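Need a sequence for this fold. Nothing fancy.
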């Protein structure tokens, strides 16, 4: 269970880009939860049911934790079990049907169009690895992919003539997402020029490869993004997932409808996508203040 916890924390660092304070909070919550399970001789996360979760909440209450703190612990567990289900470590979540009080909406961090352009301009595409890095960033921003979806792409998933990429998302749900000319152009260059140089005689179905033909890892791509953000003089704490958030927000700001963005992101529930409308409303307010004659 400790190994699974560490995998989840790594996931929060790389894909969610949480702050150190948030990571410490998540780690402490999970440590307390696993300690409770151990004391009650529950050594398999698949054996946890709703009754165990309620017993754990009662235990937290007896220790003096407020309702707000208990809600935070539940939020931690909900995210943890969602991760475990996605990674096929457990079959179901024991906290799925337990209501969590609303404690406010945390908006995702996004980049401006100028910042995205600065980031995408950094790679020296004359070099094979830089060519690969550029294609990865262009596709991630151009199609709004999750990191896990990006590194799992196979050559057969890219349809450059038709300008779309086939993505296998969460829950093995397939979707088709359009890509623009910059992503198509650099990906074509990577496939025909850069990829053969890196692979040499190695054969692999994966589109984006690292050493010895292995697929790119989340950690390696995270390091690439951090390096390029520094070179682009971007002061924000940029993570791979920031490109996905920016993709969605920029589409909505440009006039795309919410349902279309939902389909491209692969969200099963429209409410998940609606978080981006809060950001776009801020954009509309700025535009109104800037251009309306009565401001």
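Here you go.
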């Amino acid at each position: 269970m400790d190994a699974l916890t560490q995998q989840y924390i790594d996931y929060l660092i790389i894909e969610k880009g949480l702050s150190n304070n948030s990571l410490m909070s998540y780690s402490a919550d999970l440590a307390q939860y696993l300690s409770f399970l151990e004391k009650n001789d529950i050594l398999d996360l698949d054996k946890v049911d709703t009754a165990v979760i309620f017993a754990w909440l009662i235990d937290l209450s007896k220790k003096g934790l407020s309702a707000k703190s208990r809600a935070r612990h539940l939020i931690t567990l909900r995210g943890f079990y969602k991760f475990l289900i996605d990674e096929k470590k457990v079959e179901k979540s024991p906290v799925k049907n337990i209501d969590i009080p609303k404690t406010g909406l945390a908006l995702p961090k996004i980049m401006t169009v100028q910042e995205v352009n600065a980031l995408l301009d950094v790679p020296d595409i004359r070099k094979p690895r830089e060519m690969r890095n550029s294609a990865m960033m262009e596709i991630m921003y151009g199609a709004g992919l999750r990191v896990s979806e990006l590194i799992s792409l196979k050559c057969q998933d890219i349809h450059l003539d038709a300008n779309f990429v086939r993505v296998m998302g969460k829950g093995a749900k397939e979707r088709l997402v359009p890509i623009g000319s910059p992503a198509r152009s650099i990906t074509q260059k990577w496939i025909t020029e850069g990829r053969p140089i890196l692979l040499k005689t190695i054969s692999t179905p994966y589109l984006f490869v690292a050493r010895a033909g292995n697929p790119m890892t989340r950690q390696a791509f995270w390091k690439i993004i951090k390096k390029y953000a520094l070179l682009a003089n971007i002061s924000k704490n940029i993570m791979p997932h920031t490109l996905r958030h920016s993709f969605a927000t920029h589409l909505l700001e440009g006039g795309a409808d919410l349902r279309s963005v939902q389909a491209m992101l692969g969200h099963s529930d429209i409410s998940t996508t609606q978080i981006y409308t809060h950001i776009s409303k801020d954009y509309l307010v700025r535009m109104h203040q800037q251009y309306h004659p009565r401001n």
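For context: The chain has a mean pLDDT of 84.
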